[in-house]
Write a structure and sequence with these properties.
The protein is of the alpha/beta class. The protein is elongated and about 80 Å long. The structure holds flavin-adenine dinucleotide.
Length: 451
């Protein structure tokens, strides 16, 4: 953990770039590994260009699907250079690419040999085809449910449970399909390599579903207090129960499990709102929204909860700058609050410009504390209210290019920007900053909706 933002130094982004390249290399190696198995040594007798192309596409699509587990396994070191949200977006994009590649694998086979179409009848097809057809069907259900979850009215928890089950089933059936077709893995060492690859995927699953929850179970946290904030939000303070100190970078988040064991699939991501300097004390500020967040007010001191984290690259600790700009909408203030509190605790005098958008003045979460922080930081605050009270002389409406242009200092292009809020606001702010000439590499975004 860094001690001051200023001391984080300009070498941090470079280190992140190197780490990013390293993990990208590992990812590509894992994706091409099955193709190497396929091509290595003496290849089996060729069955013609199109059939071989189809096989190569099948292997590539399968490898991409298998490595999907690694993308969402939340390995902290691998996720650090990118940020978890980017990994989830990448996961989603790769799924679509893999689906296209797998479809091409099947369609090519059907075109070069129309008898293949009969294999779609899983009641009469041989087992190798049954496995492939069922895996593909599972994959398409999984993709449709992921792309249209909200339109289909599927709850997040229900979707997540089925997503995991279908993904595991699809990959296992694909492995069975490769095993039964067995064309490219006939030699003993290829079989060993292939088995190693399959064991790796299984190991990932065991890690995510069993080992990590087990570790969380052994390192519980207890609720110390729950108190109400402006804006229909609750701050839950927790501390580790009889174990290690927990450190994080301000702006990061963790998955929280409450009223459940870590083996249950229900866990929710929340940004820390507390200072990263508070030895072992942690707080989340949670806005009431749905089933889980509406129950937060019922948490009681002494209640046991579990954490998986910290995660995220949205932190001032990662970027050395002559000044920071925080642009928050509603509960998107939480990571900014953690950064503000941390900068104050570190007596950091780096200038910070906060733009904070809310509907009404009465619902501005942390309003009083932000005002008080002006005495401890070089902090300027611009509240932007959608429905300002009578006599309001500040900014009203939304955080537009004009508002930013009016309030940002002249050296705006050298600052680092952190944006967190509802999607429409985030998108509008990103566009506005771009039009104001702020380099995109200096704009960091936290998304509160991963799916
Ligand atoms: C990185 C990150 C940091 C966040 N930080 C905060 C914060 O500091 N304060 C805060 O109030 N909210 C935060 N959120 C949002 C918070 O996670 C959701 O509001 C919460 O999980 C909703 O759960 P629910 O059951 O009450 O609502 P639901 O009505 O079930 O869900 C509402 C929406 O929230 C999302 N969601 C629901 N469950 C999950 C889940 N288990 N994992 C991921 N997304 C889910 C889905 O998009 C869903 O459509 C953060 C989200 C992310 C991704």
């Amino acid at each position: 953990m860094n001690t001051t933002a200023a001391s984080s130094g300009p070498d941090k982004p470079r280190a992140a770039l190197v780490q990013g390249m390293f993990w990208t290399g590992i990812y590509l190696a894992l994706v091409v590994a099955p193709l190497i198995v396929l091509l290595a040594g003496t290849p089996p007798a060729s069955r013609g260009f199109w059939r071989e192309l189809s096989a190569a596409l099948g292997y590539a699509g399968m490898a991409m699907m298998g490595v999907q587990f690694a993308l969402t396994a939340r390995f902290r070191h691998a996720a650090a250079p990118f940020g978890i949200d980017m990994l989830y977006y990448f996961h989603r994009t790769v799924s679509l690419m893999a689906a296209v590649i797998i479809t091409a694998h099947v369609i090519i086979l059907m075109i070069i040999d129309p008898r293949t179409i009969a294999l779609l009848n899983i009641l009469q097809a041989p087992w190798r085809a049954r496995a492939a057809v069922t895996a593909s069907a599972g994959l398409f259900v999984l993709l449709t449910a992921s792309l249209f979850r909200q339109q289909l009215g599927i709850s997040y928890e229900g979707w997540r449970r089925w997503h995991g089950t279908l993904a595991i089933t699809a990959v296992v059936l694909t492995l069975v399909h490769v095993e039964l077709v067995s064309h490219y893995i006939e030699t003993p060492w290829k079989r060993i390599l292939w088995t190693g690859y399959s064991v790796f995927w299984t190991g990932l699953l065991v890690h995510v579903r069993l080992l990590r929850p087990w570790s969380q179970l052994r390192h519980p946290y207890v609720v110390e207090s729950v108190h109400c904030e402006r804006g229909n939000a609750w701050t839950v303070s927790i501390r580790p129960e009889r174990h290690h100190r927990f450190t994080f970078q301000p702006g990061q988040f963790a998955w929280l499990t409450a009223w459940n064991s870590p083996f249950a699939v229900e866990e929710h991501p929340f940004s820390f709102s507390s200072s990263a300097q508070q030895n072992g004390r942690l707080a989340f500020t949670i806005k009431e929204l749905g089933d889980f967040t509406r129950r937060v007010r019922d948490m009681v001191p002494g209640q046991r909860v579990y954490l998986n984290g910290p995660y995220g690259a949205f932190s001032t600790d990662r970027y050395h700058a002559p000044g920071y700009v925080f642009i928050a909408g509603g509960v998107g203030i939480t990571p900014m609050m953690s950064m503000l509190r941390t900068l104050a605790d570190r007596n950091d005098r780096t200038p910070v410009h906060l733009f904070y958008a809310n509907k009404q003045w009465e619902e501005v979460t942390f309003r009083e504390e932000i005002d008080e922080l002006k005495t401890r930081l070089r902090l300027s605050v611009t509240h932007v209210l959608e429905e300002p009270p009578a006599g309001w002389t500040g900014e009203s409406g939304f955080v537009t290019r004009e508002v930013l242009d009016r309030r940002l200092p002249a050296e705006r292009r050298s600052l680092e920007y952190f944006v967190c809020g509802p999607d429409p606001m985030r998108e509008a702010v990103e566009k506005a900053l771009y039009r104001l000439g702020v380099p995109l590499t200096q704009v960091h975004v936290e998304r509160f909706n991963l799916v």
